[in-house]
Amino acid sequence: MSPFRRERPPVCLGPLASLPEDVPTRVATSPPVAILRHGDTVHVFEDRCPHAGAILSRGTLTNEHLTCPAHKATFELATGRSTGRLPCRPLHTYTSWLQDGLLYHSPTPRPTRKAQKSPCPNPTPPLDSP
Ligand code: FES
Question: Which residues pair with 104 in a beta bridge?
């Protein structure tokens, strides 16, 4: 057995022209992904909600944020970040590109950025301050 890991090949998702605009579309890859085409922007993301596994492509789209049809967790599709009131791990998102009219995506999810801590709006002064 080789000590080197092999890169998995890119996954072909078919012709970009066949994708509807602004409608999340499920593709039966392994694991299944969903594609959202919005103008020249394409988002490819896991089609399984990290909360309890509902099919996200059946969710509701609002300004490139997708709301899960089951318990209403919300995700920003550009980053995968959970943005709703139900906290979830970030959605796996994938790098995609066009080649000869066909859409491909990397089989490896993009690394997710850790949530930044927001500064406290009313910081409590230290106890020993005057
Ligand atoms: S399965 Fe998506 S929010 Fe619960």
Answer: 12, 97
